[in-house]
Amino acid sequence: xxxxxxxxxxxxxxxxxxxxxxxxxxxxxxxxxxxxxxxxxxxxxxxxxxxxxxxxxxxxxxxxxxxxxxxxxxxxxxxxxxxxxxxxxxxxxxxxxxxxxxxxxxxxxxxxxxxxxxxxxxxxxxxxxxxxxxxxxxxxxxxxxxxxxxxxxxxxxxxxxxxxxxxxxxxxxxxxxxxxxxxxxxxxxxxxxxxxxxxxx
Length: 201
Ligand code: HEC
Prior knowledge:
Bound molecules: heme C
Number of helices: 6
Number of domains: 2
Oligomer: single chain
């Protein structure tokens, strides 16, 4: 049986049907479907977070902590070591920003931040970032969504928890000389991913 969006909704059966209604705003037949900023941010974050988790668990944690064949270091070139998970994330974000400049329809930025940053540059700067990081630390498992105006442009801003998913996350931060916090445990919210999408075209 072919399930139309309407019938699936009426049955209230599938998660994807619910996601469809929140993600696709256009309803007119023949109209180009548009996606809400929240749905776009959620999808982007799912990809980022999954890649980050896999890199940490299957590469860094396995080779550094379990098999002890290589280290992970900020100075990965000099030390012939693995790139840190946060560096992997930032290099990706920088390449995205550069490539997005040439694409008219692609306009978003993202960063990894924390209220307890090893690198002070990763501390929150805007009020929305500060409130969002505090919110996700206080409300485990929840995301934070808001709007903010920066430099005359209105943005949709989402903040997602960045969780210590592998033992190596926790041990490296707790032992790092520049870390302002040393009591992280596995599963703790260690920071957050901020995704920002401009709302004015
Ligand atoms: C081997 C050490 C190491 C490992 C493993 C590691 N980190 Fe980090 N992390 C760092 C360093 C160093 C920075 C600062 C990097 C920079 O210069 O931006 C950082 C940055 C971060 C930041 C941005 C705020 C800050 O502290 O500067 C967050 C959030 C973060 N890490 C969480 C995690 C999580 C979660 C994991 C596991 C998925 C993880 N880290 C694994 C060392 C590590």
